[in-house]
Specification:
Layout: H1 3-22, H2 27-34, H3 38-46, H4 53-63, H5 67-70, H6 79-92, H7 95-108
Helix pairs in contact: 1-3, 2-3, 2-4
Length: 110
């Protein structure tokens, strides 16, 4: 995973861990609810894997939150950092993924 993508994955994993702990769920219990393995959930929380939008939606459902709640990056240091991360994700994405990102953003804006 590229350095910037890895940094994003770490921040996302921390947010997912934070939300899971608020719900007092173990990794295994949350993973079971999401339909993924406990090992994979742990990798997500450590930021060692890049999560697909489909898996992110399953994680949100398991935690009883929206994808928008997971993506709430108030713990990131600045707007500029967020824009840089988005730019990297967009630049590296293929066309189908860009279309998926656009649909996701439009959905979250509602």
């Amino acid at each position: 995973m590229e350095k910037d993508a890895a940094h994003f994955a770490e921040k996302l994993g921390k947010r997912i861990r934070e939300l899971r702990e608020k719900k007092a769920l173990t990794q295994d219990r949350a993973a079971e609810a999401a339909g993924i393995t406990g090992k994979y959930w742990g990798e997500v929380e450590r930021g060692s894997v890049a999560v697909s939008v489909v898996v992110l939606d399953k994680i949100a459902s398991a935690l009883g939150v929206s994808v928008a709640d997971i993506m709430n990056m108030e713990h990131w240091s600045s707007r500029q950092e967020l824009l840089e991360k988005l730019e990297i994700c967009l630049r590296e994405a293929d066309e189908p993924t860009l279309r998926l990102y656009l649909r996701l953003l439009r959905t979250l804006q509602l």
